[in-house]
Amino acid sequence: MEMAHAESTNLSPWARPESAILALMGPGDTPEAYQERVKDDMGQLDISVQRSRQLHNAHSPLLSLPDELLLDIIRRVRDATLESATYPRAHPWNVSVTLCRRLWGIVTGFPSLHTRLSNVGHSTEFIKRSLVRSYPLAADIHINVPSQYREDELSQWTRLLRSHGHRIEAFSLRVPDCDPFGITATGIANWPDHLTSLKSLQLHVDRNKVQNDHRLIYLKHLLSVLILASRASCLASLQIDGLLPRPRAGGIVARAVYRRLVVLYLSDIQFDFEDLADFVAILSAASTLERLVVHQANLKAFMGSPLHPFTDSRQLPLPDTLRVLEYSGSKEAEFILLEHLVPSNPDTRLVLTCTDPSKHSAAHISTALKRWMSARRSTVVEAALRIANKVPDGRIQYLTRLSLWSSHEAADTGHPPDVEYNGRLRHAESFEDMMTGPSYEHLQRLRLQVDKTAYSLLQVWKYGLDSWAPRLRDLDIRLHPTSEPRLSSEVFYFCEWLRYLNVNGKALHSLTVSSEVADALDRLEKSRLQSSDALSKGESHSDASAGPLSWREAVHNVFVTNVY
Asked: Is the dihedral of CA 47, 50, 55, 59 positive or negative?
């Protein structure tokens, strides 16, 4: 396998196009199956040769591009390959793009192409040559499943990191879930210690492959050892996937590592009681943390349990240096923790993403948003809700984004919102379902935008907004033409609500609508509208004696605009 991935030293691009090698006959192959596979390989080889001959032509479209653009294309191919967590089916990126002499020259002649390295599809020897080729540039390295290596190969990696570790700024390691003799753990335990210029460390564990509790404890200990070995003074970013380490076991050294962190990512953590204690210890030690990202923090084990650690409404304060908390999940159990995270700094922002539209998750999110704004001691004065296109492969759900500000000045100057909630909305649900949680008693401005969807915003305006936004003064509704109201019934209640506000002394200061919405409001038959007296008394329009007030007269300032 290593030979298939080795870099060719032959300058001729015709010697081995795309390093195609005919497969050997396996022990379980029949002669017929082997001949069929050889035939397929020969066909792929012929295709590679034809592509190489076409690209060798100086007039081909690809080769007419300047080197700078070709370099960017090759870099994108490289990054797409390196971001794969498993071995790719195709050849390594440097082999796939080397179809002619010119492209081969770009791959070998630009050192920056060899600063992001991975053992996914590449041998240790190739990575070693790439580090030499890219000297003295800074490098990023990803090592996937080091348990594939024998003891001598692990030693080779140790020597490589000892020689070039001072250049490595980002290091990603997928910790092996199976290491029966502890050889891999012994070999990799001191790797981070050689990375003296390390700025970003990523440690990945596949939690679902851990077979028993003893292995779980062992892996948590290994994560702790790797983090303790990361003593680079410039280490500012730490990403942990699958399991939490044991920060309390490291004592002063562990606290020193977490104290330097500016960014912390926690992903796919299935919390138990020990994990919660470790999480609190990490937050306490991270005294300079500015960004915390929590993705799929699952507390399913505690749901319905009398030993639930949060039955007493316990609050977990975040570091007062934190600028933003980015929290995301896809099921109910992943939003329990969010309810109990409270900001210590009133300027801490929350970016929340939920891909589960169920009512169970919505209830947790509503509670979390309410507590978050309460802990900040801030009120919502401006809000914006955008309903975007349908969820991919979803027939009745739309992507939504709710933004909340506690200051008009911040919103006017383009400052990020205090709270950003990215969620989903069902076709028949009211947009108000996306705005549950915080109090809108002081809301003064509301912007509603619907992109090119079939969602009708005005169809659910029957109950108005005055019950939960009594101080609303400026309303901006931007609907895509495909979402504009087609029937008068869709705008009837909206028109009545505008007139109701006017009659009761709470008329909007400004209303911005698209020309299509304005036309639909103008087409309403006046005979259907209630009189002003009926609106103020809550009577039906059949009992009205006074004439109806038009929607334009019910608002102080009307602005009609063309959205698209």
From this structure: negative
Q: Is the CB of residue 175 less than 8 Å from the CB of residue 223?
A: yes
Residue with tokens 């069902």: 426
- Cα maximum dimension of the chain: 96
Beta pairing, strands 200-204 & 168-174: parallel
The total number of structural domains that make up the chain: 1
- Domain contains 93: yes
Q: How far apart are CA 442 and CA 44, in angstroms?
A: 67
Alpha carbon separation from 496 to 373, 463, 559 (Å, rounded): 32, 10, 19
Question: What does the block give as tokens for 3?
Answer: 């030979």
Please give the Cα distance from 49 to 51 (Å, whole number).
Answer: 5
User: How much helix, strand and coil, in percent to the nearest 5, is found in the chain?
Assistant: 40, 20, 40
Cα distance between residue 449 and residue 387, in whole Å: 6
**Which of 257, 358, 340, 234 shows the shortest CA–CA distance to 294?**
340
Residue 102 lies in a domain: yes
pLDDT number for residue 119? 81
Residue type, 224: S
Mean pLDDT over residues 255-263, rounded? 89
236 lies in some domain: no
Which of the four pLDDT bands, split at 50, 70 and 90, describes residue 542?
Answer: very low
Asked whether residue 487 is assigned to any structural domain, the reply reads: no
pTM above 0.85, yes or no: no
Per the structure, the complete domain to which residue 11 belongs is given by 1-110
- Give 41-97 pLDDT, tens digit per residue: 777 766 666 665 555 555 556 666 666 777 777 777 777 666 655 544 456 666 666
- Distance, in Å, from the CA atom of 283 to the CA atom of 294, rounded to the nearest integer, reads 12
